[in-house]
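Memo to structure team: turn this sequence into structure tokens by end of day. - J.P.
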Amino acid sequence: MLIFVRGEASKALSTQSESIWDRIGLLWRALALSFDPGNVASSLGASEDSRISLVLALGKLERNIVAGLQAHQEAAACVSESLQGLS
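Reply from structure team:
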């Protein structure tokens, strides 16, 4: 799964026309898929602990980006669907 997450991260970082929120959304979706027991690729690559650490770090990054900025808070709402995959 680490390969998939790295691939999605690489794809997210290499696309210049997308916003940071589009890129963060891609990362959240890749992470959500990595925890899906029905996903065959979820057993490959990174350990569950390392993926949990990545989820926490990405959450902190997003929190810091939206802190006190209404425009960023509104833009961050678009990634909420991706986050629901982690519940």
